[in-house]
Amino acid sequence: VFPESSLRVTGVDFLKSQNTRQHHTDGYNIQSLVVRRGQPFQVQVSLSRELRAADKLTLRFGIGENPMKNRGSLLSLKPEREDFNGWKISVVERKGKECLLSVSSSPNAPVGKYNLHVKTGSNIYKPENGVIYLLFNPWCEDDVVYMANDAEKEEYVLNDTGCIYVGSAYSIYDRPWNFGQFEEFVLDACMYLLDKSKLSLAERRDPAHVSRAMSALVNANDDSGVLLGNWSGNYVSGTSPMDWIGSVTILQKYYKTKKPVRYGQCWVFAGVLNTVMRCLGVPCRCVSTFDAAHDTEENLRVDVYLNDKGEKLNSLSFDSVWNFHVWNDAWMKRTDIPDGFSGWQAIDSTPQEQSQGRFQCGPCPVKAVREGDVYLPYDAKFVYAEVNADRVYWVVKKVNGKDKYFKVGTETQAIGKNISTKAVGQNRRVDITQEYKYPEGSKEERMSMQRAYSFLRPSGLVPRSGYASTMQTIGANTQPLVPKEPVTKTGLHLEITNTEPLHPGNPLEMAITVKISAPGNWTVDLIGSCQLQYYTGNVQANLGTIKETINLEGPSEMQIPLKIAPDAYMKTLSSVEDEVLILVTAVAEVKETNDKLTKETSMRFQYPPITVQMPETATLYNDFNCAFIFKNKLNVTLENCKLLVEGLGIFKMTTFELGDIMPGRIMKSEIVCTPTRLGEKKIVAKLISNQIKGISTEKGIFITE
């Protein structure tokens, strides 16, 4: 045979636009081909001559540094042959020197970057840009991340914008967040994290291993991952956690420098982990829990210590209740644990506690939390405690010069409230508490709790920082008492509300309502305090207290006002770097019966809005104007104002320095936008100043051809 008749490849066309449309990967801003596993894609091979029956043509897909067949990292595929590791190729058509091939990867293939080489006889052709990115495939029924509902896939895999719920149970609000999983370098950053994770090829097949590894790598602890957590209130050497409006800048910066980006707090970790999971093809959502328990050491109890004025003390607490905590749920079929625990799995990249020696958390089946099956991997005990702990209040008094602890209340239904995520296809909050917990007081809840307690062995009721005046312990063998709201002899009940909008610069006007349902004459001692605290429960300032003795003719109620002058809090508000909440705590005691009750409520300040002015629709590559308007309706000057704006597929993250905005002044910033992508796009804006740590808004625009 003459050498010129030996078959050579002259080119490979990856048919990118056709393949990416079919694979729902046409959004990725990247040169290479991105496809999903378990679904065929086509490549067109150009040859030096027509293909003959005797010719040998092989496609070789290699993954990793040094691909080898015996390790499964090199796949050598011949047309119409039996499959290799679940992969196969077939000839679709031959036209002269062109050969159209269809490649089907295995629905449990390792995800990552593959290099394609084409071998003909002894010739090997290496196409330029011959890299193929292979992702998880929620559209493929045989993939463990399969999700049947199209609207859910649209939201949890393809939506690159969204919002994260924050604030407090009393005042939940949404923070818009740009996930931006399709933006430039984001997929490469995720691939870099996969390589950095040192997961084996077998582990890369399984979203449980991948999501656990990503929960570890999104925080910088123990592996110089993406984000450095910081709750100190001092962010001079980086970006304050409040100043981010999306994951894109963070992941691009990390990919460029390969060093942790400063700084994150829980919603930033959750926003970035959500981006990473969606980018890799695993359906994922951000989940916010209000009044989440932290560091309970699995005793399912958080102790809160108050002084005799009813002010919360930071110094004594080992554990805490965060006003909110954000983690993620990733969707998958779990093949490593018994049936019945597939579906949503909680993963958390906020560094709180080590799990198997690293700061990682999950995947923990949400159903295991609900059923009390807290022995299941991974970290189910920890997640269970976050949403199911009890809160116990102690007042610390000096008796003969020594600290004594008096128990003034137990709340059994206060932790893990209003578990929230963004609705599918709509900008509204949906409450998913029932996915994590059975209804309070139901038979199922009781059984789930007894199940969980049998694995957790909570310790007895002793305050952690010393000895209480009342010692009660639950023996290891006795069933825990079924928690109920504390029943008092008088039906004592407390409510805390704000009576006027809580605008910075105005007096804070709040009220404590004391209710008694039992007939008779009752004397109630009430102490109340108002403090500023971070969302982690850390008190920043004491603003004021009240102490009253009231007489009630039951059944009746009385409203006691609690008013704080602006001077008492404005200085703290302007000097802290984080958003603070207003914490009101009330302790009531009925003299005649010794009934005691404690109630606390956290509220957020209310701010004037930002308005966005722009057309409702625009056409591809045609400029339009977008204006951001803000009127300072507060009685206080906002100092050092910055406006952060970003529109994925429209314009890159931009910052306007606005200086000081006096009361009554109107500020207007404009930007010229050039849409580069079709469909529904969003513009996100956030205003930050010394006094206000974040007024956010978002507005949608539809881009047509």
TrEMBL record:
Q: How is the cofactor bound?
A: Binds 1 Ca(2+) ion per subunit.
Primary enzyme class: transferase
Transglutaminase-like domain segment(s): 258-351
Residues bound to Ca(2+): N388, D390, E440, E445
Q: Which UniProt keywords apply?
A: Acyltransferase, Calcium, Metal-binding, Transferase
Question: What is its cofactor?
Answer: Ca(2+)
The UniProt GO MF terms for this protein read: metal ion binding; protein-glutamine gamma-glutamyltransferase activity
Give EC number(s), comma-separated: 2.3.2.13
| Superkingdom in the source lineage | Eukaryota
Gene3D superfamilies from the xrefs? Immunoglobulins, Transglutaminase-like
User: What is an example of a Pfam family matching this protein?
Assistant: Transglut_N
Q: Which residues form the active site?
A: C266, H325, D348
Q: Which family does it belong to?
A: Belongs to the transglutaminase superfamily. Transglutaminase family.
Q: What is this protein called?
A: protein-glutamine gamma-glutamyltransferase
